[in-house]
Design goal:
Helices cover 48% and strands 13% of the residues. It is of the alpha+beta class. The chain folds into 2 domains: 3-33 and 173-213, no CATH class; 39-169, Bacterial polysaccharide co-polymerase-like (2-Layer Sandwich), CATH 3.30.1890. α1 crosses α8 and α2 runs antiparallel to α8. The longest helix is centred in the first third of the chain and has 22 residues, at 56-77. 21% of the residues are buried.
């Protein structure tokens, strides 16, 4: 199909192209909601225990082995409901009332050998640093409450990174639901309707419409 024929079809069925665009445009204006900015803090912690007074060879091996277990265990603890509740109680003492359920869904952890990482995503730039500090204190000061076997063996975790919030880019879901993309999809749907209507339309509107029929053109009535 030639490009000029495509323009002719769009000009003829412009109202079919416009219908989806208008509907989506009105719906987008009525439901337009700018997503709140999201902030994230990434903190690395080194896990480890002090030697337990075994032989020299054991003192070199077992503390390193134990540190890997501690890193893995505290990373799992950080995503638990009990940990979120303890962090929520720490925030109350600072005048921040944040539900434990909201905290638990915003903490993600990972670990690699003796180091574990805590990711905190939060929508309030003023609260994310106090939240990160409360998480740090709970991990470094109260680890024995979750694992009594590490009580009295030294600090189990040390924070390596200060909490420095950074604003996250819009999520893929937010980008896919952006008004411009919605209107582009609506325009594509309208164009599809226009070409479908032209394909199904039995009317003869141009001499070119008779070309495939093999019928001779005897005359043409001017507009």
């Amino acid at each position: 199909m030639e490009l000029r024929n495509m323009f002719r079809i769009v000009r003829q069925w412009w109202w079919l192209v416009a219908i989806p665009v208008v509907i989506v445009g009105v719906y987008t204006l009525l439901t337009l909601d700018h997503p709140a900015p999201q902030y994230q803090v990434v903190m690395r912690f080194a896990a480890g225990t002090e030697p337990a007074g075994l032989s020299i060879d054991y003192d070199r091996y077992y503390p390193w082995l134990a540190s890997e277990y501690v890193a893995r265990g505290l990373a799992e603890v950080a995503e638990s409901g009990s940990f979120a509740g303890a962090v929520s109680e720490r925030l109350v003492t600072q005048g921040l009332d944040v539900a434990a359920s909201a905290i638990q869904g915003r903490i993600i952890s990972d670990y690699l050998q003796s180091v574990f990482v805590i990711y905190i995503t939060w929508q309030n730039a003023d609260q994310i640093v106090p939240l990160a500090e409360a998480v740090t204190l709970e991990l470094t000061q109260n680890a024995a409450a979750y694992y009594p076997q590490i009580k009295d063996v030294g600090i189990a975790a040390r924070r390596l990174d200060a909490p420095n919030p950074m604003q996250l880019s819009p999520s893929l879901r937010a980008q896919l639901l952006s008004p411009s993309l919605k209107l582009a999809v609506a325009l594509a749907a309208g164009l599809g309707l226009a070409f479908l209507a032209h394909y199904l339309d039995p009317s003869v509107r141009e001499p070119a419409d008779l070309k495939d029929t093999g019928l001779p053109i005897l005359g043409r009535i001017p507009r």
